[in-house]
Design brief:
alpha/beta, Quinone Oxidoreductase, Chain A, domain 1, Rossmann fold, 7-stranded mixed beta sheet, 13 helices, 15 strands, metal-binding, Alcohol dehydrogenase
Length: about 350
């Protein structure tokens, strides 16, 4: 099979490799019909994720068709069309029993494209298939379902739910990339009073408007003054960090009101300053998190009912064989306008 292997910081190669296969009774072997590229994959290429070994097949998002299953698998069978979750769940450990699947200590968590070979390949082995795949309704498009592998549950759980968005809230989203846009789309489910999107790129600010932001702000204009003017000097009730760089986190801390919530979603590869000398007496709740994907069935139901549209995130489409070029496009969003890229199996 062909697969994209990580060969060290800033390097990767689309190469022939041994076919993935069932190794454990709880495994499923899935033919990858569509996959995508995540900002976390770029963090891996930047050297920010040292747990990823050289030679690892990248990718943790896919929609595909089950080819084979281990003897212990009962929830899916060969021929089934499934969503492969970015988080693998053993279903038995303490954390999985608490629906904190991202913290699984029974062999799961974020392992695809990290500690085991991932989805940017023609075939992928999915451990703990009964609890780590989701059967897809016949009428749901592949591209819409693909966004449920990671960005929609990540933004919803780590941003919107951790941030405790409530009706009437002013929500500021720093970063209007795919995660920020998913946070905007899912925050709207809670009828906030206003959503303010902050991003330096005009195409992404335009996208934020399409996804439901009430106000968009260029980072060159002093976003803090804009948010304070909109909130009578108090600050936003909920601020969602969706970038993963120190300046974005520090801006979020300036935007949140006393008693508000700062929900960090971005993957950080370097330290950010936490100015407790300014924050200690403001009753602020700061949350971080890796997605657990406990919300995936609920989001899947909303997609199937037409209440969310996953396909609207996709700006570029390529054959899976063109994945190296797709990475180039995805890594230059300021120039390419890329949000999410769908990579489809040829034929």
């Amino acid at each position: 099979m062909k697969a994209l292997r990580y060969t060290g910081p800033a390097t990767m190669e689309w190469v022939d490799t041994a076919d993935a296969a069932v190794q454990e009774p709880t495994d499923a072997l899935v033919r990858v019909d569509a996959t995508t590229i995540c900002g976390t994959d770029l963090h891996i290429l930047n050297g920010d994720v040292p747990s990823v070994d050289h030679g690892r097949v990248l990718g943790h998002e896919a929609v595909g068709t089950v080819v084979d299953v281990g003897a212990a698998v009962s929830a899916v069978a060969a021929g089934d069309r499934v969503l492969v979750s970015c988080i693998t769940s053993c279903g038995r450990c303490r954390f999985c029993r608490e629906a904190a699947y991202g913290q699984c200590v029974g062999g799961g968590g974020w392992i695809l494209g990290n500690r085991v070979d991932g989805t940017q390949a023609e075939l992928v082995r999915v451990p703990f298939a009964d609890t780590s795949t989701h059967l897809l309704p016949a009428g749901l498009s592949t591209e819409s379902a693909l966004m449920l592998s990671d960005i929609l549950p990540t933004a919803f759980e780590v941003g919107v739910l951790n941030g405790a968005v409530a009706p009437g809230d002013t929500v500021a989203v720093v970063g209007a990339g795919p995660i920020g846009l998913a946070a905007i789309a899912t925050a709207r489910l809670f009828s906030p009073g206003a959503i303010i999107a902050i991003d330096p790129a005009a195409p992404r600010r335009d996208a934020a408007k399409r996804f439901g932001a009430d106000l968009v702000v260029d980072t060159t204009t002093d976003p803090t003054s804009v948010v304070m003017a909109r909130t009578d000097g108090l600050g936003a009730d909920v601020v969602i960090e969706a970038v993963g760089v120190p300046a974005a986190f520090e801006l979020c801390a300036d935007l949140v009101r006393p008693g508000g919530h700062l929900a960090n979603v971005g993957v950080h590869g370097s330290p950010a300053a936490l100015h407790l000398e300014r924050l200690w007496n403001r009753n602020i709740t700061i949350t971080t998190g890796l997605v657990d994907t406990y919300s995936t069935p609920r989001l899947l139901a909303m997609l199937a009912a037409g209440h969310l549209d996953g396909a609207q995130f996709i700006t570029h489409r390529f054959d899976l064989d063109d994945i190296e070029h797709a990475y180039e496009v995805f890594s230059r969003p300021m120039d390419s306008g890329a949000l999410k890229i769908a990579l489809h199996r040829r034929g």
